[in-house]
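Lab notebook: predicted structure, single chain.

Context: the supervisor wants predicted structures on file for every construct in the current expression panel, including those that have not yet been purified. This is the next one on the list. No modifications to the sequence; it matches the entry in the shared construct table.
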Amino acid sequence: MRWTPSTVVILAIAVGGMLGRSGRADETWPAFRGGGDGHSRDKNLPLTWKPRGRSAESWSIRLPGYGQSSPVIWKDKVFVTSVSGPSKEHLHVLAVNFDDGAILWQRDFSATQRIEDRDSVSRGAPTPVVDAKRVYAVFESGDIVALTHQGELAWERSFVRDYGELQGPHGYASSPLLAGDLLIVQVSHSGPSYILAVDAETGENHWKVDHPQQTGWSSPVLSRTEHQQCVIVSTAGSVRALDLRTGDELWWTGHVTGNSTASPVVAGDLVIIGVGFNRGSEAGSRPGDERRRVAPGVDEDSATNLPDEAKKQAAPRGSLAIRLGGRGDISDSHIVWQVPQVTVGYASPVVVNDCAYFINRVGAVQCVDVHTGAVHWQHRLPGQSWASPVANDGHVVFFTKDGTVMTLKAGRDVVEIGESTISTTDIVYGVAAANGSWVIRTGRGLLRISGQDAKDQSPKAGSAP
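Prediction complete. Output recorded below exactly as produced.
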C-alpha cells in the first residue's frame, strides 16, 4: 500500500482501539488475526525453529473437548474456548498462564442451542476477544459470555434465545469484534440475519440491524478513515459497511460470490475480500470466459473489464479490492479490481506493503499486487492451510493444517526463509503471537513455541511455478 501520514495515523488509531488503554502491541494478541489484520509487531518472534529439543519456555497442554477457535493473549494470560458433549452442550472458557501453560481457571456454561457434534459442523469456532478488563466469548449455540481476567462472570446472554435459532448445515463461526466500548456480533445464516452492537460493559444492545439472509462464517472488521468509522461485513453475495455508532448502512455491493468464509482485511484505503472457489459455477466454463474488473493501467491483454451484460446476468467471481469511502451501491464506482484466478480456502488474506497474500483450497499461496490485482507469483505450501497467515517483520508465516510451517520473505519474489514443524497429530486451526512466542491452537490442545527455539533463518530463493 502507499503509506501516507494520514494512513499511519488511521492505523495507529485502529490498533489502539483494539488494545484499549493498556497493553503494548508486542505483548497482546487480542482477537482473531490479532488487531484484525494478521500483523504481529513483535520483534522477537521466531520465524523458524528447531524440530527437537524445545526450550523450557515452550509448553503443550491438552484442552477439554474440541475447538476451532484461535487463542487470544493479554500480557501473561492466554484465553481459549472449546465445546464438548454429543450435542456440544458444554461450553468452556479457559485462562492459561503464558509462561508455563498452567490452567489458571476454567468456566463452563450450558449451550442454549444444541447441535449434534459432527465433522461437517463448526465446533467451538468463534475466536474470543479480550481487552484490559474482560474476555468476551461467543459460541455457535448463540451464547455470549463476558468474564473478567480472574474468571468472574460480568454478564451473559443468548442471541438465539432473543431472536431465534441459527439455521444452516455447517453451524456458526463468526468471531466478535471489539470496537471501543462496543462488541460487534455478526449473525448471518440461512434464517433471519442481523448484526448486533452490544455494550461491552453491560451486554445490552446499542443497536441491531437486519442483514440479508446470507450465510457467512467470516468475521467483521473495523475500518477507520478520516470521514468514516465503519464495520465491514462480508457474507455470501454481498459486502457491506455499517456506521459503527448507529448501524446505518453506508455502502454495499452485490458484485461478489463465494465470499462466505474468509474475513475482510483493511489495507490503507482498500478493503480486500477473499473469495472461495465455487465448483458448481465452473461447470461448462471455457478458457477466456472469465473476466475481471481492473484498475487503470493494467495490461488489457491479461485482464478485461467486465461487460455490462455480464453484470446483469450474474455477479462475477474472484477475490477483489474495494476502495473505502463510498456511499450507497459502490459496485460501479469503488471496486478497484476483481480477479477470478485469485481464490481462498479457509484462511483469510494478509497484506504486507503492496502485496496481498491469499491461500487457496489446495495450499497454494498467491502474491497479488494490492493496487492492480496482478498476480506476482504462486507458491505451493507443504499442505492445506486452515489457519490465517501472520505477517511479522517483513515476512509472512504460513501454518498448514498438519503442522508444517513455512516462512517466506514478503515481496514480489519468492524467497523461502525455512520450514519448521509443530509436534501434533491434530489439525492446526489458529495461532496467536506475543511476547516473543507463538501460541498455536489445535483441535484438542494448545502449545507455545518460544523465541528460544529459533534456528538459523538464512533465506533461500524459491521458484514460482
